[in-house]
Write a structure and sequence with these properties.
It contains one helix and seven strands. It is mainly beta. It is globular. The N and C termini lie far apart (27 Å).
Length: 108
């Protein structure tokens, strides 16, 4: 397995961290912006009253305000939540190495 790819079973092996990160999602050539509620090496939960449909493949940039750069990732919307906190979960299918570095900083 490529070190930049995450399997479905890995998402349960990693800790989830509360993180209010600004995330740009691109799907079907349309950009939308969200805030995250939490993130792990397996995926990210994004807050939204209008979630993206399940099984949608997305490209994303997780913006890191302190270092003023973005972490690139790709993923699939795996579920939606229609009660508070409303939003949707994305399982990472491919991620930049800097995502692991970000998670290391959140864990510290």
């Amino acid at each position: 397995m490529n070190h930049n790819e995450f399997s479905a079973t890995e998402r349960r092996e990693h800790d989830r961290y509360s993180a209010g990160l600004f995330v740009k999602i691109v799907t079907n050539r349309q950009e939308r912006y969200f805030y995250s509620r939490n993130v792990s090496a397996g995926g990210i939960f994004l807050l939204s009253d209008r979630p993206i449909s399940e099984e949608t493949m997305v490209e994303m940039e997780i913006l890191l305000p302190k270092v003023k750069c973005a972490v690139a990732a790709e993923g699939e919307v795996v579920w939606q939540r229609h009660r508070d906190p409303k939003g949707f979960a994305i399982k990472f299918t491919k991620a930049d190495q800097s995502l692991r570095q970000l998670l290391g900083r959140l864990a510290a």
